[in-house]
């Protein structure tokens, strides 16, 4: 009887361990393994697709490369303005995509006479990397791109403009000590903390039978072990509390992927000069196509106010 009981316990332990191991691999795969956007992947609007080809086929586009502090080769497309200027925008894309997704924004800024830099975040596009940084590691990469610009043009005036995970990256970058060349930041649809966003997203998964606190604890542990960072440290809301960079917070009120209330919380927590814009009827990062006139008007007013 005792022997049978021991066998039963060992079997139960093996099954439990195997289940946890399989679940942790599943969590890591869906949260942290990058996959590339292809031309076969549909965009949510034709204007986004048009923007991709605008960047890809731009005759002035140049491929640029730098090395991250952990020795990854990072790529960006650089498109100079038609006329010489010391004004630059760094456009930062979201998850599951690459720099070409920001072509619609690049086109606008080029028409306004700015130089445009479009980095591929680590693990995406032509940049090296085996895991998604969710803005935490990426903020350091963006700082490297900032210094890349300043090295070329010491008089550079730079704005950061990020979408979704790129917006979170933007905000976490502003939480660092930045050179005076960085004049402003625009965050379109950022989450407040990665932990909260993981919990919110996990609830929408089919078959999310593991209780949320346990699932998040497993995600935190496996990402710490395999990617080397703590998801609790990916906190735009903490970053903006120490930021001095003038920041415009934008969100669509019909966003079902990242809760629009996160935007208001970020705005309230920010210690920097700030403005807030909620675009009515826009889903996740749809504001630029749902209400482009209002979107770009708010950005223009914001940049004028900070004398950019």
UniProtKB/TrEMBL annotation:
InterPro entries: AB_hydrolase_1 (IPR000073), AB_hydrolase_fold (IPR029058), DNA-binding_regulatory (IPR052920)
SUPFAM superfamilies: alpha/beta-Hydrolases
Domain AB hydrolase-1: 89-200
N-terminal signal peptide: none
Superkingdom of source: Bacteria
Name the record gives this protein: AB hydrolase-1 domain-containing protein
PANTHER family in the record: ALPHA/BETA-HYDROLASE, ALPHA_BETA HYDROLASE FOLD-1 DOMAIN-CONTAINING PROTEIN
Stretches assigned to coiled coil: none
């Amino acid at each position: 009887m005792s022997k049978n009981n021991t066998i039963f316990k060992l079997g139960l332990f093996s099954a439990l361990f195997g289940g946890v191991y399989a679940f942790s691999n599943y969590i890591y795969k869906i949260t942290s393994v990058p996959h590339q956007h292809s031309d076969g992947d549909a965009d949510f609007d034709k204007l986004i697709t048009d923007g991709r080809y605008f960047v890809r086929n731009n005759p002035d586009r140049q491929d640029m490369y730098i090395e991250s502090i952990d020795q990854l080769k990072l790529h960006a497309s650089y498109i100079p303005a038609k006329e010489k200027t010391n004004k630059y925008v760094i456009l930062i894309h979201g998850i599951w995509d690459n720099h070409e997704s920001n072509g619609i924004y690049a086109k606008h800024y080029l028409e306004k006479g700015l130089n445009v830099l479009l980095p591929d975040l680590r693990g995406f596009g032509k940049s090296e990397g085996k895991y998604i940084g969710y803005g935490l590691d990426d903020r350091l990469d963006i700082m490297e791109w900032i210094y890349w610009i300043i090295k070329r043009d010491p008089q550079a005036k730079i704005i950061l403009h990020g979408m979704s995970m790129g917006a979170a990256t933007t905000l976490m970058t502003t939480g660092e000590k930045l050179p005076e060349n960085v004049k402003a930041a625009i965050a379109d649809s950022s989450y407040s903390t990665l932990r909260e966003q993981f919990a919110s997203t996990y609830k929408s998964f089919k078959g999310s039978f593991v209780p949320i606190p346990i699932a998040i604890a497993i995600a935190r542990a496996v990402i710490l072990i395999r990617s080397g960072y703590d998801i609790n440290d990916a906190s735009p809301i903490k970053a903006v509390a120490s930021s001095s960079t003038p920041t415009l917070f934008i969100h669509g009120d019909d966003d079902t992927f990242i809760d629009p209330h996160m935007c208001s919380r970020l705005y309230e927590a920010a210690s920097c000069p700030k403005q807030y814009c909620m675009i009515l009827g826009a889903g996740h990062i749809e504001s630029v196509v749902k209400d482009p006139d209002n979107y770009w008007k708010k950005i223009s007013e914001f940049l004028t106010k900070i004398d950019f």
